[in-house]
Amino acid sequence: MNLKRTRRLAVLLLGLVAATTLTGCASTPNSGEVGVVRNGKAWYNPFDWLDNHKIRGIVPNGNGNTWVGMGSSVHYYPVNTQQRFFTLQSCVSDGELTPCKGADSTAITVPTADGVEVTLSGQFLFNTAFDGTARGDSLVKDFDTQYSTRKFGSKHPYEGTEGWSNWLAAIVEPTIVNNMRQVVSGLSCAELVSSCALVQNGGQQASQKAADLANGKVNQNNVQRVQDAVVKSLQADLKGNLGNDYFQNIRFNLTTVRLPNQVQDSIDKAQSAFAQVSQSQARVQQAKADAAANEERQKGYEKCPACAQIDTLKAIPSNVTTFAPGAGFSITSGK
Fold it and tell me: What are the residues whose beta carbons fall under 8 Å from the beta carbon of 261, sequence distance 6 or more?
């Protein structure tokens, strides 16, 4: 009897679980997600017909199948332990740099202090502040209130990777572009890419200094300066524009600084010219060294005339059979 009751109870429990799942009363978060539960209207529940869409709770990260209420919906967002990124990429089309296509990638082209349009490639790394604490839960609720009712592209921000990426591109990207524009506008082209100095007016002395320093590489010291300045101001800018501190641990890696084609062509020509000058200067230095060596050798011959004759004999090519440097003197090979 007890066995039958146990079986009936087990069947009943399984039925309740199945009904709960099928009617949308339960939800299971994927790894790395936190869910915001909103009230809904279940057509099969008359008491729910007048319900509202207010937030009724949170589905914490790592929870199993969780009761969320009849007709409720759950909006899932990345938790703080899941590192997210926003990639900046430079694409080339018909020889010109153009923005890459894609929701989470864009070309950031901004002017330097001296008016050169540079294209920056890099990656922003960040975490959300949705960490499961009381403050984290408050933040994710506030985020859902701010942005869940709007579509970005064809998706809401809680609708998978595409929805999240669309939101980043629409809301976060303009803040990043404006921030980087402000930072880069305080630097000259040569401070970002040292070889820019080769094609900027500055007199002979400046040109020579540029030739000594310019190697076509990005100035690493100023790259770090750009990265630090961007990160420092971006946190405040995002809070101001988004309305709250939804992000933390923001980092920026600047990987490439590209110049306009015409500027790069001019730099290449200037570097080639300086390379030719360097080769000529090397030949001059070699000639001076050879002349000094000959002078020292001549002094040695004056002290040792026989040494001059010995060196002369050594210098005779192997294919010469007779050597007659003067009247009454000749050497004939025995071959």
Answer: 95, 96
218: exposed, middle or buried (C-beta count within 10 Å: 0-12, 13-18, 19+)?
Answer: middle
Q: Identify any residues that bridge with 121 across adjacent strands, giving them in sequence order.
A: 256
Give yes or no: residues 295 and 239 share one domain: no
Backbone angles phi, psi at 217, to 5 degrees: -95, 160
Residue 194 sits in a domain whose CATH number is: 3.30.479.30
Among the ranges given (158-162, 172-176, 300-304), the one the predictor scored with the smallest mean pLDDT: 300-304
Q: Are 166 and 67 contained in the same domain? A: no
Q: Which long-range contacts (CB under 8 A, 24 or more apart) does 45-48 make?
A: 45/70, 45/71
Tell me how far CA of residue 13 lies from CA of 34, 72, 118, 194, in angstroms: 27, 21, 64, 72
In this structure, are 65 and 38 located in the same domain? Answer: yes
Asked if residue 267 lies in contact with residue 198, where contact means CB atoms within 8 angstroms, the answer is: yes
Beta-bridged to residue 75, according to DSSP, are: 36
- 214 three-state secondary structure: coil
Q: What's the rounded Cα separation, in Å, for the pair 62 and 77?
A: 13
pTM beyond 0.70: no
Q: What angle do CA 82, 86, 91 make, to 5 degrees?
A: 145
Are 183 and 226 in a shared domain?
yes
Three-state SS for 159? coil
* pLDDT tens digits, 78-121: 999 988 888 775 554 544 545 555 544 556 788 888 888 888 88
183/49 same-domain check = no
Strand 96-99 to 90-93 pairing: antiparallel
